[in-house]
Amino acid sequence: MPESHIIPWADASWTHDPADITVDGDHLLVTAVEGSDAWRHTAYGFVHDTEHALLAPLAVGEAMDVSFRAPWNGQFDQAGVFVRRDGEHWIKAGVEFADDHLGLGAVVTDRRSDWSVGYVDDWLGSEITVRVSRWQDAMIVRARADDGDWRLVRVAPFDGEAAASAGPFLAGPTRAGLVVRFTRWTMSAADAELH
């Protein structure tokens, strides 16, 4: 992966304030508000726009990595990277605990949301890193557990002419008390190749 530099937690702003934020050395511990989530229309018929995302600008040719840990024991607990163009165009990518499984996937929203997910139960207890690389016409999502191999999660269309921001996110749709420990947030050059 290309050389990276750390993004300070204070150099960004939240889409929606979490219930609590604590700085622990270099780490950021964030508690989700019960009922927080991000989704638009598809299959469920509702719009949720209450996620907690800490966002900084992301330009074409740049990538962001977010590393984190969480207990993963509440239905739909989720964390990862959020990329936002506006309220109807965004991507959330990372892990979500649902039906007693940890799923790795992405929700890509262009007025309506879609969802792709696959089980990664062997990642429970690991430090997870999600990486988004912005190309001229796409967002490339990769992830890994601890120091394992990078896994391609999604190649999604994304308007290269639009301003966008990205960064760590979490949501607790069904419960209070989800605490995610974000351990690292970095920026680097975007991945040059898919394979």
TrEMBL record:
A Pfam family assignment: DUF1349
Gene3D superfamilies per UniProt: 2.60.120.200
Entry superkingdom: Bacteria
Annotated InterPro entries: ConA-like_dom_sf, DUF1349
UniProt name for this protein: DUF1349 domain-containing protein
Originating species: Microbacterium foliorum
